[in-house]
UniProtKB/TrEMBL annotation:
GO molecular function terms listed in the Swiss-Prot or TrEMBL record: glyoxalase III activity
The keyword Membrane is assigned to this record: no
Record field: catalytic activity: methylglyoxal + H2O = (R)-lactate + H(+)
Swiss-Prot/TrEMBL keywords: Glutamine amidotransferase
Name listed for the protein in its UniProt record: D-lactate dehydratase
E.C. designation(s): 4.2.1.130
InterPro entries given in the database record: Class_I_gatase-like, Prot/Nucl_acid_deglycase, ThiJ-like
UniProt GO cellular component terms: cytoplasm
Length: 250
């Protein structure tokens, strides 16, 4: 990999997402970043010798999705769960994870120093990333510069922010991509007993070429130009590997 090894990691400030109830009310459902969707690619990025910068809309301390820190999320693997929690604690001490950079603090000149951008999932991005103009500006830079861009699960919702950036249009129209599927979200709606914004169908309406299905739900990733995307936590390792491969090639 070339000398420039800086990676920007985009996170949500939200600790919940909107859940639309049958009676017309909207409630806040607890959420945040999904631990393994962040930790697995992050560990690979660090192991490759990259420097990471965390950023969010307002620089608030990121909140983990409660479901993602349960032992069930790790299929009972206590040691893997603790490894990933320990990584986040290390990031708090060494990399400013508790105080992410505010999007607006990152200038266009500073953006030129980054080699790639990574946006993990969890439902939180539904709350504050899709319509953020500053994020739209940031992603506009990575898109127009053809710099590696990685995201999975609900993270691709952030791509909608390009509609509020400099071009005022969805900049990933025609791109093949994968996200948390509508079918998976429908299953979550039965658990939460409410309706949730759909990443797959919303991106498709904007012109994205969505690739979903059994292979994707089992961890297969989608690659198109500067973009690599995945469906759910099972894609985290493959996504991290491809992201590093893409950065090494640029």
């Amino acid at each position: 990999m070339a000398a420039n090894r800086k990676v920007l990691i985009v996170l949500s400030d939200a600790s919940s997402f909107p859940l639309y109830k049958a009676d017309g009310k909207t409630v806040s459902q607890d959420s945040g970043y999904f631990l393994m969707e962040l930790a697995k690619p992050l560990q690979k990025i660090l192991d490759a010798g990259c420097e990471v910068t965390f950023a969010s809309p307002e620089g608030k301390e990121p909140t983990p999705d409660p479901l993602s820190v349960s032992l069930a999320a790790f299929a009972g693997n206590y040691y893997e769960k603790n490894r990933e929690l320990d990584l986040i604690e290390r990031m708090k001490k060494e990399n400013g994870f508790s105080r992410p950079r505010n999007f607006s603090e990152i200038s266009d000149d500073e953006l030129k120093t980054y080699r790639g951008v990574f946006i993990p999932g969890g439902h939180a991005p539904l709350s504050d990333l899709g319509d953020n103009a500053e994020l739209g500006r940031i992603l506009h830079h990575f898109h127009t510069s053809s710099k590696p861009t990685a995201s999975l699960c609900h993270g691709p919702w952030a791509f909608l922010s390009t509609k509020y950036g400099p071009s005022k249009q969805f900049e990933y129209a025609g791109y093949k991509m994968t996200s948390w599927s509508d079918a998976e979200e429908n299953a979550m709606e039965t658990v939460f007993r409410g309706e949730i914004d759909k990443v797959e169908s919303t991106l498709r309406k904007e012109g994205a070429d969505m690739h979903e299905g059994v292979a994707k739900s089992m961890g297969s990733i989608t690659f198109d130009r500067e973009l690599v995307t995945g469906d759910n936590p099972m894609a985290a390792n493959a996504l991290g590997d491809k992201f590093l491969e893409m950065m090494a090639a640029t």
